[in-house]
Write a structure and sequence with these properties.
mainly alpha, about 70% helix
Amino acid sequence: MIILNPRFRVQGLRLFIAFMTLALLVFLPEDSYAMHISEGILPLNWAALWLAVAMPFVAYGLWRLNTISKRDISFKPLVGLMAAVVFIVSCMPVPVPTAGTCSHPAGTGMSAIAVGPAISILITAVALLIQALFLAHGGLSTWGADIVSMGVIGSFAGYGVFKMLRGLKVNLTVSAFFAGLLADWATYLTTSVELAAGIRGDSAFMPLFTRILIAFIPTQLPLGILEGAMTAGMVNLLVKKRPDLLIRLGMIKAEQAGGAV
């Protein structure tokens, strides 16, 4: 008869409880809501157009990643961390039934100021593809449109605002806050354009666009503020714990490493 060490029995019990909890979360029935722009929402011609717009940005992001990684072998782990952040953050759905989609934080403001907008777009494309394939969030036909709104527009809006404010000598934390805020709001402004253009049929564009945009406001207004706070919090944490990382990323200078400036 084999007698296990009590420590091993406790660890085994913990593993069993964790496994059963995960199984319950996965297999118990629950309500589900469409994330991003749902599969089949956009007509084929619009879906193809947005995909054609998105792919050059994704290809450029891949090229940038390979180029930087050859110079700095520690860059890929940072990209992997940002990819995990974007994936997890953008999986927090707040249903907006009147818009045919969900509100959610995007995380692209955070990733854009950390690794640059081009690589942030690549990260977003991968996160959206995995979500579409395995979580039924968004869709393959709307992948390009989701990349454009969340990846391209979100990343460049967040990065542009951050760089502009830092150029005006605005505090690092404040700059990061507005980067997260504007990246989020720009994403949903673009999503409203995509939805209105794709589903309007013979109707006028502006009235439908306005209705969709207004439908997003109750959820996205506070979520944008929340995402700004999350982005500022991440930058503040890096200032305190890893200022060397911010120096390498060009976000602060060596003499500014003592605190958020």
